[in-house]
Amino acid sequence: MAITPRKRNQKKGIQPHLGQGRFYFALFIVFGVFASLVARAAYIQVIEPEQLIYEGDRRSLRMDPTTVQRGTIVDRHGRELAVSVPVQTVWADPQRVHEGQGLANRERWLALAEVFRTDVDSLMERVADPKRRFVYLERKVTPAVADYVRQLGIPGVYLKTESRRFYPVGEITAHLVGFTDIDGNGIEGLEAAYNEVLTGKPGERLYRKDAQGRVVEEVRATDAEQPQQLTLSIDQRLQSLAYAELKKAVRYHQATSGSAVIVDVDTGEVLAMVNSPSFNPNNRTDWQPHRMRNRVITDAYEPGSTMKPLVVLAGLESGAIEVDTVIDTNPGWMRLGGRRVSDPTNRGEQSITEILQNSSNMGSSKIALLTGVEQLLATYAAVGLGNDTGIGMIGESYGVLQHRTRWSDFEVATLSFGYGLTATTLQLAQAYTVIANGGVFRPLTIQRRAEGELPPGRQVVSRENAEAVLLMLEQVVADGSAKNARVPGYRVAGKTGTARKAIAGGYGDEYVTLFAGVAPVSDPRIAVVVTINEPSGDDYYGSTVSAPIFAEIVGDALRAMNVPPDHLEDTQLHVAGFGGGQ
């Protein structure tokens, strides 16, 4: 009995010590947990908060884009040449496709593949990965195809609205306007050159929603920057008629290609720019590279006898000749450094006008030798040869106008009748614009000039000499080698050109035929150049191939522009009478 109280006292002595240890251990655990929570909170909120912010924003932030259509391209009268139209694009959410058992019904995918004209296995392969959330099935389909996709009702396959570029006049302006890629970015022609102007910038609205889908915060709203409309100097009426005539002529002469351009003499605006063969920019299934080149600005040829008026102009400017100068071309040929320059026949003494009327190589060569190569090249450069025209289009060729310290007499002679240099159809039109505009050079433009925005021109040759050459060119059409270029009711000035095409090691058997001219002479309004490349058969002269096309284009253009006739003497006026008499 004496032992029991002692044990009880010993047990009571140990209990306070054990309770205090447990208390401190529990306190340590509590503080440790609290410290870890504080550390974690500090780490999340101070050191690396981005992940949770991102996750929170993913669940609450929403963005609605404000789409903008690509800007339209119109002609000088507001007729649409390129517009954007809304279309449907077919896309799929592979995860939703698998969740809805969308691959179970192969027949519906087979029907979808048939309208897309593709293989069903490759189509189904695009949605085979259930981890993907977006894949295109077919971009920019027709409304009929979009309706068919809706009727199929394949789970996870949806439609969304996009815009597609449409070209109302098709092949008529294809080379000029160009086209865009599948995403609406310009890749050819004016679509590429003015891509930034036509694209604009989409806007967006950023807002936050709660769990019930209610908008609780407007975070940001950015207004869309609307694209600009591109207004061209092109007159769609002139463009259409020029293309129709050129296409008909290229087919008739079985030529490789042809080009034509109409330029406003006063303003330097390009009113028409056409090529044949062309292509349909609305149908990309059968495009051929040789059809897609804008030959008016990319292809440079030796311009042949169309240079002879510029040789006369250079001679008048230098004082080497006068308007009434007579050149002796006897005996119809001459040798220069062992090379022969000749005319088809010996025409003897010829006036300057007769040299142009007869397209005399002897006459132009002697004028060039009297003038000197420096003055000749300076005149060529002054009217725009060997340089850009100012039109600002992608792919424009400068042609070739060499500047050397040494020239042989034969090389100077060949420069006078259009060999040893190259020029594009547009450069040649600019040169004749200078003649028609009284010697004033003005950069060309493809955009319509607003009222009062006519840039000041440079007087590169004297008005007197330019007008003298213009009157000489009128005689070339009236009584010379270019009679096929006559336009009933109008005074026309112009010059033919026929040039053999250069090949490796010399010249081949293919030709380029040209005609460059101005109308009406009394008050020049337009300069027109027609180029036919490699006509087939024996008819390959500018006077018989290009001149008639020029006449058709000029006649139609002047009437479309309401230009009054200035030469009624060669037309018969039919006056309607009473009583059925004729």
From TrEMBL:
InterPro entries: Beta-lactam/transpept, Beta-lactam/transpept-like, FtsI_transpept, PBP_dimer, PBP_dimer_sf, PCN-bd_Tpept. The gene is ftsI. Pathway: Cell wall biogenesis; peptidoglycan biosynthesis. Pfam families: PBP_dimer (PF03717), Transpeptidase (PF00905). This is Peptidoglycan D,D-transpeptidase FtsI. Belongs to the transpeptidase family. FtsI subfamily. Catalyzes cross-linking of the peptidoglycan cell wall at the division septum. The keyword Membrane applies. Residues 258-554 form the Penicillin-binding protein transpeptidase domain. Its main location: membrane. It comes from the Bacteria. Keywords: Carboxypeptidase, Cell cycle, Cell division, Cell inner membrane, Cell membrane, Cell shape, Cell wall biogenesis/degradation, Hydrolase, Membrane, Peptidoglycan synthesis, Protease, Septation, Transferase, Transmembrane, Transmembrane helix. It is a single-pass membrane protein.
